[in-house]
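As promised in the previous annual report, we have extended the structural survey to additional targets. Below is the entry for N-acyl-phosphatidylethanolamine-hydrolyzing phospholipase D.
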Amino acid sequence: MAEEPLVTAGNNFLLDYRQEPDVSCSRRDSHGRFVNPWTTWQFPSYSTMARLFLMEKNNSNVPSVKEVLDRELPVLEPYFVQSPDQCGQTGPSVQATWLGHATVLVEMEGLVVLTDPIFSQRASPVGFMGPKRFRDPPCTVEQIPRLDAVVISHTHYDHLDADSVAALNVRFGSGLHWFVPLGLAEWMRKAGCENVTELDWWVGSQIPGHDNVKFFCTPAQHWCKRSPVDDNKALWGSWTIVGPHCHFFFAGDTGYCSAFKEIGKRFGPFDLAAIPIGAYLPRGIMKSQHVDPEEAVQIHIDIQAKTSLAIHWGTFALAYEHYLEPPARLHEAMLNHGLNPDHFFTLHHGESRMIINKDTHLSS
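The corresponding structure token record, generated without further manual editing, is:
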């Protein structure tokens, strides 16, 4: 990472970002609601969304036969279920286990971090309706052997699941540290979370006792809503985790915007990134909020990722593309850019991959 000055404030770290003052931090409108500052944000009207959803064909075609899904998208038992004492990578390596959708168990620098945990059957405020998983979680919260931190990208139900938050609190209690964007700390505390750090874009903090690993909330192009009246009252974001040996990036949920080039400039190269590739059709609705596989590859390039893991696909049918289309288009997009497709890979549910950093970061 290019060396940049840091301004410290207590246990938090604020990037000196005066070169780009228009995106130095999050923005709000006159009503106090967070907004996207990029021209790439052009969210469609409700009438346009209704028209497109009615006119466009839903090609998701998720099979109803379990045997077909087991063959196409197998769910594996994570290694740590049988070998819990092996969880927690140290030194110049980062290991990721995909638990479905945007939930990734990340091991780096001696810490175990979980991203956007959802272990519920539905991404919904109620258990009897809403998007339902077509692939079960590969493990339960009780089978996660240890956990130091959770990062939350935004408040949508497929990324912030109340039942999963409650289960993690029961399992790990006060020993678990939560990192969330601005406006979400109150919700987390009401849900029983004790150690919550709420951050604006470009601001970082750390877990007490692990001062050499910093968690930065970084920008993403998205939005927040959990009820009819809370539109964008909380911020959304990506997460950058910077240690002395490895850098990890979690994109969360995002449309494409210019912020990723700046993330790469400030924190790259990344040893591993988790980047969404699914839920992108109809494009007239999804473009501002969800990248397609080609844009995911552009993020991979922008942030200077050495390797990337594809997330946000193969678990919930949230959009109209065929359920197996995202990885096929991802492979093609990597080839079109002249890149090795193995450097932006998919995993089976429950599968792990270790990335060993053979280089030395100049700064952290």
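Residues 58 and 320 are 4 Å apart (CA to CA). Residues 65-355 form a domain with the Metallo-beta-lactamase; Chain A fold (CATH 3.60.15.10). These points will be discussed at the next consortium meeting with the crystallography subgroup.
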